[in-house]
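Sanity check

After download, print the first record. It should look like this:
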Amino acid sequence: MDELKEIAKGTIFEAFVDDQVENYKQIKQKEVKKAQINNKWIDQADKLFHLFEDVCNKYKPTIEAFASQVVFVDNRDDEGSVSFAITNFKAETFSLHCADLHSLNDDYQKLEDDAYVETLDEGKEVGGVHFFFTPGETRKEILYSAAFSTSKAAGLFTKAVEPLLLELFQKCFDLESLLKATEQQEDS
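Expected structure tokens:
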């Protein structure tokens, strides 16, 4: 670009070329900023999704003894979320969803607005996740900066998520259908 400015230097085109080069640089800087913020949010949410999956995998074998099906569902590509679903022996499924915090507020779409991007400080932007049983009813939010502010990130994250997993288990637990299913298995 400096070559273009040099070619136009001293001609009637100099001011115009200088303006065009500067405008182009500003546009590219905004695009880079948008991409960096977008990638930062996604990368940080992904790390939290992986921690959630680890916690779910830790408890899955225990829960399987009380349920007909226990699955971890990865919908990051389609919905920006993952979930842990338990189906009881009455064929009722209950799920704890973990979604990208920035998808909740449509922040990814807001990145298309240059004025919005200008208000963001790339260094201060942080990704995160929110947990819910029912869309629109956030039960807990965990920011990446809070979870990874210590070397004990996995332990802190687990402690934050365990009460929600217990609540999910309690929602799906049905002793009567569990006993019937156990009796049927024993009779077989």
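If your output differs, re-run the checksum step. Summary of this record's structure: The radius of gyration is 25 Å.
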